[in-house]
Amino acid sequence: MKASKLVSPFRLSSLLRGQRTQFSPCNSSKTLPGFKPSIPKPLSLFSLLHMTSSFTKLGAPECSTNWEQILHQLKQETRSLHPKSSSAMSSHSTAALVSPTVHSNWVEDYGTPDACTYNILIKAACGSEDLDNACKVFDEMRSKGVHPTDVTLGTLIHKLCSSLRVKEAFELKDQWERVHGVLPNAFVYASLMKGLCGIGEMTLAFGLKEEMVRKSIQLDSAVYSTLISALLKAGRKGEVSGLLKEMSEYGCKPNTVTYNAMIHGYCKEKDFEAAYRVLDEMVEKGCKPDAISYNVIIDALCKAGKWSEANLLFQDLPRRGRNPDVLSYRMLFSGLCDWGQFKEAAFILDEMIFMGYAPHYARTHKLVEGLCQEGNTELLGTVLSSLGKGNVLHGDTWKMVISTVCKEKLLNVSELVDTLIVQ
DNA sequence: TTAGGGTTAG
Hints:
The chain is mostly helical. 66% of the residues lie in helices and 0% in strands. It has a domain at 327-423.
């Protein structure tokens, strides 16, 4: 069944890519990340795919009407997309597109897929455990005469390396150069280097850097960030300055990721002075620290028992031009709980929930447990109220509270009911 | 104009 009007390869790729934004809580600061909206409005392609794929074979004649509807919806929804926003659902939503593509070729009915289109689908297929789906998309790509690019190679290599299948990644790299004439670029090399470091082959990773130089492949900041991070994780911080020097000789400037790798390295050694110096250097060099830069320090301070200092840095974020994100809250909250700072933790929890961020169940449960054991009924009420406001008061937590309260006679029944009513 | 890598927790 043909669609009434075909779209360009560019538009088709954009439509596919745009699907990743459907579940971003961009319209409501009160939507808790990690909590899936039960019925997205308007009905998205993702939800339609789920409805159809759950009870019928995709591409089968009986669901052709649904596919038409889906594709129509796809066209209608593009205007409201936010291409740069991200969401935990991103890979899942595009992944839902892959299977029907392989089996029904419906993409073709809607436009002419180009390399970019297939690369997006291959990337989505890489979200699953094995590479079977990705291979199917690749086979289809080849059968349609679409030539793979260095992006296709980079996507597959990345998947293999992140699964620690480094040997296969190297085989693919060599094979593609021979068979498809696709040359590996810095994206490919960075993945390979990270993969090698992940299996303890740092010497080989550095050897790849030399290979890039030999083959006149442009080195970039990501390649150096990978190696710097690996050196610091291996406790070889003495070699970092040499790499930074070499980096500058090749005309690569350290970026936020490079600096973050260094901050992480210093924090691991509890050298917070050095970590703060990196922050200052970033500002001096016009490279704005991001959430990761601060979260790494906050987390390390908490783990080192310096929860008060972590809290100070956290409170200082707005002045530094960066609001705390969900991880900043979670890390500080965990740290405060770990060190028994229940009052501060309860305050951060309430603010976190007010901001629309979901705490981890295990953490909040443990806090409530601690307060029950302490018999701190006042703070217990505050925490339960916060959890209730965010609709994140888990049934098990509530059961534990009731059981403890009844056993210890900490509160009278009417107080409990009052708290419950607030929910 | 669209696609891929490198830096935080659990």
